[in-house]
């Protein structure tokens, strides 16, 4: 199983995630030192954060960036 990711809230989502698309202003995930690290925009409400975390957890579990089978 994939180890639990580390999650950070950040007000500087553009600086951390370097968005290239419209949805990357919400969050992003990177593998750093064998751990998946998720950054979530601190300005989001609770429901939006939950949706972003679910999406980024998928990337931590090796869901590719082109989002095959996504809804």
Describe what this molecule looks like in 3D:
The chain is α+β, with helices and mostly antiparallel strands and 71 residues long. The radius of gyration is 12 Å and the shape is globular. The N and C termini lie far apart (24 Å). The mean pLDDT is 84. The protein is 28% helix and 25% strand. It has a three-stranded mixed sheet with strand order 1-3-2. The longest helix is centred in the C-terminal third of the chain and has 15 residues, at 46-60.
User: How would you state the average pLDDT, rounded?
Assistant: 84
**What is the CA-based Rg, rounded?**
12 Å
Q: What share of residues is helical? A: 25-40%
**Biggest β-sheet: count, sense, barrel?**
3 strands, mixed
Basic shape:
globular
Q: Per DSSP, what share of the residues sits in E-state strands of 2 or more residues?
A: 25-35%
Distance between the termini: 24 Å
SS elements, strand count? 3
The spatial strand order of the largest sheet comes to 1-3-2
Low-confidence sequence ranges = none
H/I helix tally: 2
Give the SSE string. EHEEH
Helix and strand composition category: alpha+beta
């Amino acid at each position: 199983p994939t180890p639990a990711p580390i999650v950070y809230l950040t007000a500087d989502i553009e600086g951390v995630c370097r968005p290239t698309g419209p949805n990357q202003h919400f969050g992003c995930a990177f593998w750093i030192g064998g751990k998946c690290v998720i950054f979530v925009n601190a300005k989001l409400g609770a429901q939006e954060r939950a949706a972003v975390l679910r999406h980024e957890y998928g990337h931590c579990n090796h869901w590719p960036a082109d989002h095959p089978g996504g809804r």
